[in-house]
Amino acid sequence: MKKSIGLAIGGACFSLPFWFGGALAAQPGPINPQHIREDVKYLSSDLLEGRGVGTRGGDLATEYIARQLAAAGAKPAGEDGTYFQKVPLVGVATQPETEISATAGGKKIDFKLLDDLVGIDMSQRDSTAFDAGAVFVGHGITAPEWNWDDFKGVDVTGKVLVLFTNEPTSDDPKFFDGPALTYYGRWVYKYEEGLRRGARAVLIIHTTPTAGYGWEVVRGSWARELPYVKLAAGERALSCAGWLSREAGERLLGLAGKTVDELLAASEKASFRPIDLGIQIHGKMVSHLRELNTRNVVGLVAGSDPKLKDEAVIYSAHWDHLGIGTPVNGDSIYNGAIDNATGCGIVLELARAWAALPAKPRRSALFLFVTAEEGGLKGSEYYAQHPLIPAAKTAIDLNFDAVPPWGRAKQISIGGAERTDVLPLAENVAKRLQLGIQPDAEPGQGHYFRSDHFSFARAGIPAFSIDLGTEFEGKPAGYGMRMWEEYNRLHYHHPSDEYHENWDFTSDAQAAEFGFILGSDIANQDKLPDWRPGDQFHRQ
Length: 540
Ligand SMILES: [Zn+2]
Prior knowledge:
The protein is of the alpha/beta class. It contains 13 helices and 22 strands. It starts with 32 loop residues before the first helix and ends in a 16-residue tail after the last helix.
């Protein structure tokens, strides 16, 4: 899970006077919060050593999940008749021998690794050298739907692109979805667009306003081994995907007689054109590579309609967490109880409930437990590239990531459902369950791009996560918000994200029940769900 501090806002108090339970096409099998508790308790126990990718604890966790799927009656849907899909990853750690410098007009600047610059050689080689001209490309965005193109047809093949993250602003509240961060604004998009255009490297100049966080955050998250899906033979990649600190960016642009503020202003204009900086960038990337063998776990319950059973609804949750790391108060096991043993418990219980249905929904259901989410959604990315059911036959992905056991919830949150034509159905299911729907409190944070459902969206599959809102039965207003703040401050990605016997898993059972009814309704409807017209994502 990638949660930012504070989910903010308390929603309205919903109480709906009716219960639609009898209208269900498929009655849910019993969702039992006790089962979810047992799964969470085991998966987050010290025995599993924090479920690190490529560790014994990770193997134990995936073995447990496979056994639970078998006991539930879900069929193996992985490779060679197993419950597993092997996910070959490469861990890349940039080494201190890495050198990046810039020259122009007889002047030379050296950038100091970590203080000035962070970067990864995406080509997954021990060492790569490059020497290329730098071109400033604004926000590096080509977005036809907003009539925006920073490249204006300029060929940047073989160049080092220098740019800012985020997106241009405007007084028009609809421009780039207003305050909501679109995918064009995410830093990952910048590297993808650079690669599409044949660039050799992409360097983002950091500023706190454009990134939304300080240099320490960038430095901290890049100064370690990062996992990547293994490149196919001959697959192109950037020699350096990196960031420059604002000060380093200022020095770089100074070589061209420009400043950060000047180029920030220039990149706000629709008439912006790439600027050849007249600077040569010299890079020697030195990396330590390590193969990481890990796996997704997957089970299937077949649908009942001979014509539709080769199509499926996917339920997903990431099983991995951070493993063993820096000790805090003498504890080095990052148990990941909320993040994301809870999601695993929910999807396992969904498999049990679905498999127990006397009459199955028309389409099939795939129960998918992905690896390496904490390293950047890599297990779900691999699944989307190697789907076990073709994307065109996948109805939807409903994902669960960090669903806290805090009692009876009054609301759920389904950010991203509004991008799809499933929203009215989801609203109806929420009504049936007497749950309110809480809107995204922090649209500028781009939460939609930061959990595993996003890997499915990129492959064209309608997808979103099911989470809880901030209001809980019998608790003061804003209870969930305060609990999240405390969780983010004290336990998020800390060894203290541990199981507690006094947790109340009613909320997890509610999220499961909501997902169960929504998923079975989708599995039974005539047409496959789709994106709303004009959405940035679409079926491919
Ligand atoms: Zn996490």
